[in-house]
Design goal:
The complex is a heterodimer. By secondary structure, chain A is an alpha+beta fold. Helices cover 46% and strands 21% of the residues of chain A. The longest helix of chain A has 31 residues. In chain B, strands 1, 2, 3, 4, 5, 6, 7 and 8 form an eight-stranded mixed β-sheet that branches. The chains are: A alpha+beta, B alpha/beta. The interface between A and B is large, with 42 and 50 residues.
């Protein structure tokens, strides 16, 4: 079954957050979001305001999936980067293996700078996610996932009225 | 793909509602959205045509509660049912943890149900998944309409592996939460074995 859980340990998560903070600073971006290709938000850093980052993550994954589908139709494997430029706010997405690095920026930055900094960080993030793959496999092998051995009563408790 | 974050203590899973065009996939999500407390849900995103037909997908995040100190969050998606949206329908299945097949109980939609179910199995296979091994629920929707096929006949025709079969009228909410509960329980039970 290829559908195996991805496990992010606390130390890895803080490392990822630090990398996102660095990218945000280096690229003068408003917000940086790391998203799994299936649409799950992994981490976010920056000016959130009332932005719905859960929806943003799901739509970004849909966007990448759709353009990836188009890429295959014309004989490409995928488009590794996507950019959407608006009047005030813009988005740049960089595909790094199974994750997407999404940067939201405005006129304090530029597409060129965001592209450059994202590309520089993508190598580091690729290494981090290679480690996460190993840690996820180890957690599965050691049966140390949080729901391992969960009882029917514990599962049922989620569905009983509060 | 289930995503477990030890820092935020969250477990996220992806459930996809599949089925032929106009079978009531979006109506299922809409009912869940309308009936859930604001703090337990995010926005309902619908990428639809001007005629309100699903173009790419509907999406809503739903938080069920906390188990073993982890918040369990389900991301609910629908696929576009119309046959010609095949390319985008397939994309939504990527990383799926559980599937609900919403069948239209009307006699004239039987062929569409069978075609969609076959299409689901085929699309899952392209990602290396087997329907027989995946958390899965069959919902028989539109039971309130006059021209429906009897439940046992529909079950004989559409049930694939002894999965839970739930009668529903998604427009009134009948069977909607029973369906969600049935698939969510299977997804969490899978994590027990992970």
């Amino acid at each position: 079954m290829p559908n195996t859980p991805m496990v992010i340990l606390e130390s890895r998560f803080h490392h990822i957050k630090a990398l996102l903070a660095r990218l945000r600073l280096d690229s003068s971006a408003r917000l940086v979001v790391l998203v799994d290709k299936d649409g799950q938000q992994i981490a976010v850093h920056g000016e959130l305001g009332d932005l719905d980052t859960t929806s943003l993550a799901s739509l970004a994954a849909g966007n990448v999936a759709a353009t990836g589908g188009m890429a295959k139709l014309i004989g490409e494997n995928e488009f590794p980067t996507l950019s959407h430029e608006g009047e005030k706010e813009s988005i740049h997405i960089c595909v790094i293996g199974r994750v997407l690095l999404l940067v939201v920026f405005d006129d304090r930055s530029s597409l060129g700078l965001v592209k450059l900094r994202s590309k520089q960080l993508s190598h580091e993030l690729a290494k981090v996610f290679a480690e996460i793959e190993k840690e996820s496999a180890a957690a599965r092998a050691n049966s140390s996932l949080p729901f391992n051995g969960i009882t029917d009563e514990e599962i049922d408790s989620l569905f009983s009225p509060a | 793909m289930t995503f477990i974050n030890y820092a935020s203590r969250e477990i996220n899973c992806k459930i996809v509602y599949y089925g032929p065009g106009l079978c009531g996939k979006t109506t299922n999500l809409q009912f869940i959205y309308d009936s859930t407390a604001a703090q337990a849900k995010g926005k309902l995103i619908s990428l639809a045509t001007e005629a309100d037909r699903t173009l790419f997908f509907d999406f809503m995040p739903l938080e069920l509660g906390t188990v073993r100190g982890f918040k369990t969050r389900f991301h609910l998606y629908t696929v576009p049912g119309q046959v010609f949206y095949e390319a985008s329908r397939k994309l939504i299945l990527k990383g799926v943890d559980g599937v609900v097949f919403v069948a239209d109980s009307q006699e004239e939609r039987m062929d569409a149900n069978i075609e969609s179910l076959y299409n689901l199995e085929e699309n899952l296979r392209t990602y290396g998944y087997e329907l027989m091994k995946l958390p899965y629920v069959l919902q028989l929707n539109k039971r309130d309409l006059p021209n429906v096929i009897p439940t046992d006949e529909l079950t004989t025709e559409l049930q694939r592996k002894g999965e839970p079969v739930i009668e529903a009228v998604a427009s009134t909410g009948a069977g909607v939460f029973d369906t969600l509960k049935a698939v969510a329980k299977q997804v969490l039970t899978e994590l027990r074995k992970a």
